[in-house]
């Protein structure tokens, strides 16, 4: 199975963040969960990468997906 580098920038109170993480778990995709609500440095990093304040921001192999865009995530993870 292909190994991807996946980072999910999220907060505890974000329902779409939970959906995104559940989706990755369902597909057995390992990911790093970065809580930007608790880590200001990581929040800054997320904004620099995405230009967005909103979560989730999902980084897959260096490519940024803003929000839980299932189609785009599947495409980047080659799940189709």
Structure notes:
- This protein is α+β, with helices and mostly antiparallel strands.
- It has a single domain (6-63), classed as 3-Layer(aba) Sandwich (Glutaredoxin), CATH 3.40.30.10.
- Helices cover 39% and strands 21% of the residues.
- It has three helices and four strands.
- The protein has helices at 15-26, 40-50, 70-77; strands at 6-10, 32-35, 57-60, 63-66.
- It has a four-stranded mixed β-sheet with strand order 2-1-3-4, sandwiched between helices.
- A hairpin with a 2-residue loop joins strand 3 and strand 4.
- The longest helix has 12 residues, at 15-26.
- The protein is globular and about 35 Å long.
- The mean pLDDT is 96.
Give a concise summary:
By secondary structure, the protein is an alpha+beta fold.
SSE map:
Layout: E1 6-10, H1 15-26, E2 32-35, H2 40-50, E3 57-60, E4 63-66, H3 70-77
Parallel strand pairs: 1-2
Antiparallel strand pairs: 1-3, 3-4
- Total number of beta strands: 4
Structural class: alpha+beta
| Helix/strand order | EHEHEEH
What's the pLDDT, averaged over the residues? 96
What is the percentage of strand-forming residues?
15-25%
Features:
80 residues; alpha+beta; Glutaredoxin; 4-stranded mixed sheet; 3 helices; 4 strands; 39% helix
């Amino acid at each position: 199975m292909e190994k991807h580098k996946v980072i999910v920038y999220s907060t505890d109170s974000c329902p779409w963040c939970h959906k995104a993480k559940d989706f990755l778990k369902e597909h057995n995709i390992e990911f790093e969960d970065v809580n930007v609500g608790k880590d200001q440095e990581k929040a800054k990093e997320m904004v620099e990468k995405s230009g967005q304040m909103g979560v989730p921001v999902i980084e897959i192999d260096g490519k940024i997906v803003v929000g839980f865009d299932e189609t785009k995530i599947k495409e980047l993870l080659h799940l189709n």
